[in-house]
Amino acid sequence: MKRFITLSMAVAAALSFAACDNDQTTGLEDSLLEKRSGPPGNSRYLTVMTRNLYVGGDVDPILEAAGAGRLDLIPGLVDQAFATMMLTNYPARAGAIADEIMEADPDLIGLQEVSVIQAGELEVDFLEILQMQLQARGLNYYVAGSVLNIEASVPSGLGVWVTLKDYDVVLARQDIDTYNAVGRNFATRYPPFVLGEQQLDILRGFVAVDAVVDGRTYRFVSTHPESGSGFGAQIRQGQIAELVDYLSDETLPVIIVGDLNTDGYTREPGYEIFMDAGYKDAWVRFAGKTQPGFTSGHDADLQNETATPFYHRIDLILASRLGWARVDIVGDDPSDRFPVEANGTAYWLWPSDHAGVVGQLHVPAQFRAEDY
Length: 372
Prior knowledge:
Helix content: 25-40%
Shape: globular
Strand content: 25-35%
Number of helices: 9
Structural class: alpha+beta
Number of strands: 17
Distance between the termini: 58 Å
Largest sheet: 7 strands, mixed
């Protein structure tokens, strides 16, 4: 129990930590922005953002142990993940992410790995903390829609059960009207695990809303399909196919954002499902196919000094039609790191294990051949 009390104190103290002021644009993006000052003429555009908040520790070993029936390993693995969550200090990271949002001023935000962690008397609500940080900066974003994915309880080595709830969420700026929110879990999924006397379902899903931006209505979607290779990749492809099929009759312009877990640089099969369905990649429209635009992944403890661990582009902004795009990658430059202190020790963190992606998009009202 002592460990959880310590984390509770760290969470409360971390709310007062401030992230450093950061330049959120890399050198590559600077050079591109010089050439692309804005959409043609007086065309309207919307600004969207995708951000994986990161649960704060590696939970995959816990799921793998459960799937293999190695229940004896789970308490130790839970303790390891929980210790990393303490070090990665979500409340402080939420402040850095709020700074990114303040800089980008997006109309709509798609969030993934929006967690609620409960352990004994402690509860850490990622969304609540992020909204507190936004409000502290004078920003007003409301929850336009959400979907609950994983909900699991596992034992720790201290005899306390730890519960994790995982959500995908859409936030909208206060002046943006939204309606027709839908949250769904994918039918394609891993077979359920048996953990003690409970069944553990590894669910993924999506949340979609209609949003009115500058007089235009869009269908905006945030999603987080399955990760991994092998069987995980097959599941992910099935989930992406489900999403594409669900949106196939949509008459509004569709914007899909998220940690899609399918590499747009190497054009993995899941990514190609989107392309075959006619979706356009905002990064490719902005930077071209030869620029990698990597978005993941930092070390699990978020203390790597550079973004050199980045090796794939899985945080994407896709549109059913797209004329012009400007894209910024945030959280991938050393200037995006910020200092924290715990138990008298200072260290530096990244805001998440992923970078975030901000896109200014011009979406033509009608079909134009040059957009395809």
